[in-house]
Amino acid sequence: MNIQDIVNTILETSDSGRVIRVLDKAAPIALSFIGLGNQATTWPPKIEALGVMVTNKCGAKCEHCFNNSSPDGTNVLGVGDIEILVKHLLNNDNPLKVVGLSGGEPFLYEQLPLLVKTLKKYGVLVTITSGGTAITESKLKAVAQQGLDGLVISFDHFHTPFVNRRRLINLFETAVSLNIRTKVSYGIGPGVESDLRKLNSELPSEVELEIHPIDKIGRGVDLQDYQLDESHSIGKECSNCSSEFSSMALNCDGAIYPCCSIGGFTEGLKLSHIDEIKNGASIVDSYKNKGHLENLHGTGVNFLVGSVEPYRKCDVCYRAMNSEKLQ
Ligand code: SF4
Ligand code: SF4
Predict the structure, then answer these.
(1) Helices 3-12 and 192-202 sit at what angle, rounded to 10 degrees?
(2) pLDDT tens, 161-200?
(3) pLDDT of residue 236
(4) 320 vs 327: CA distance, rounded Å
(5) Cα–Cα distance between 230 and 198 in angstroms, integer?
(6) Which is the closest atom of ligand 2 to the Cα of 240?
(7) The domain containing residue 136 runs over which residues?
């Protein structure tokens, strides 16, 4: 049974009314809050969503973590640096609509309420994606008070060893009571069918569920294949990266990458650095100086390696573009 069939069965046998989506890749989650990310962009691209990895410190050390976060992470971005990039994008005709904060664990970032408040001044939607290890009711209320628009909690086979399940379910209920639009990001792993049924019975019905394959990137590079769902590849071709390039990612070390965070933090994809922007450099010029990014934008990874299955394109890109992985 493929994942869509499992979801259909769950929906038929439950009256939760929950919104459940099956994605063909771990799409930039911030984009899904506003339904962007499917339109092709021009070159150089116009940026509609900025993903910000505020820290690589995390209470968990998931085996699949694409950005290698862990309790040992020490990188932390300054609120002022994030604000400078937001202003740069808005001052250069980018229709920025959403900023997605992630990590590591964003709820370990002490200035999270101040950051949400600062970003809301610019009229953008602000979302937080968390692994759940450091959320508390008081932290949730603090960011809600500053106008947080969306909360995503990764809650699946890979994350549950690091969290108290009952405590996290209670926090979902708190988020719903605070009127925060809340989603679970669920990466497909072993035991997916029984796990999804359990989650569906536990979560408040207002919590949306987004199910996606796991990319073999970062610490997950050696994972075995969990994407056993043939529906992911039927009738689809590996697309170019034009729509993904409507996003941009700011890493916790100040490096700037295209295509939000999925497959980013890959040496060969590096676009610029926050220090360059502070010194007067232009993001538009950075795009123009990177011919291989223009090729990815226009043709996708096929220009590097030939035919690729659609949900594998970022895996392939990671190996092709990461200098440490080049053979
Ligand atoms: S919770 Fe997220 S950021 Fe933290 S180790 Fe797991 S996948 Fe990485
Ligand atoms: S294939 Fe590479 S450039 Fe394209 S979206 Fe994935 S990581 Fe980004």
Answers:
(1) 30
(2) 999 999 999 999 999 999 999 999 999 888 888 899 999 9
(3) 56
(4) 9
(5) 23
(6) 4
(7) 3-59+69-321
Q: Which two tokens stand for residue 130?
A: 């968390």
Instruction: Quote the radius of gyration of the chain (alpha carbons, Å).
Output: 19
The CA distances from residue 66 to 58, 103, 224, 281, in Å, are 13, 11, 14, 29
| CATH number of the domain that residue 79 is part of | 3.20.20.70
Q: Which residues contact 127 (CB under 8 A, 6 or more apart)?
A: 29, 30, 33, 98, 99, 100, 101, 148, 149, 150, 151, 152
For 63-88, the pLDDT digits (tens) are: 989 888 999 999 999 999 999 999 99
Closest Cα to atom 7 of ligand 1? 65
Give residues (CB < 6 A) around ligand 2. 241, 244, 259, 262-263, 269, 296, 301, 313-314, 317
For the cut 70, the answer to whether the pLDDT of residue 139 exceeds it is yes
Q: Which residues line ligand 1 (CB under 6 A)?
A: 58, 60-62, 65, 69, 103-105, 131, 154, 159
Rounded to the nearest angstrom, the distance between the alpha carbon of 279 and the centre of ligand 1 is 32
Residue 108 lies in a domain: yes
Q: Which residues pair with 56 in a beta bridge?
A: none
Give the number of the ligand closest to the Cα of residue 131: 1
- Whether 326 is in a domain gets the answer no
Average pLDDT over residues 18-31: 74
Structural domain includes residue 44: yes
Phi-psi category of residue 240: left, alpha or beta, with phi > 0 → left and psi -120 to 50 → alpha: beta
Reference 247, options 33, 21, 10; nearest CA is 33
Ligand 1 atom with the shortest distance to the CA of 131: 1
Measure the CA–CA gap between 6 and 10, rounded to whole angstroms.
6
- Our count of domains for the chain comes to 1
Question: Is residue 327 situated within a structural domain?
Answer: no
- Cβ–Cβ under 8 Å, residues 264 and 319: no
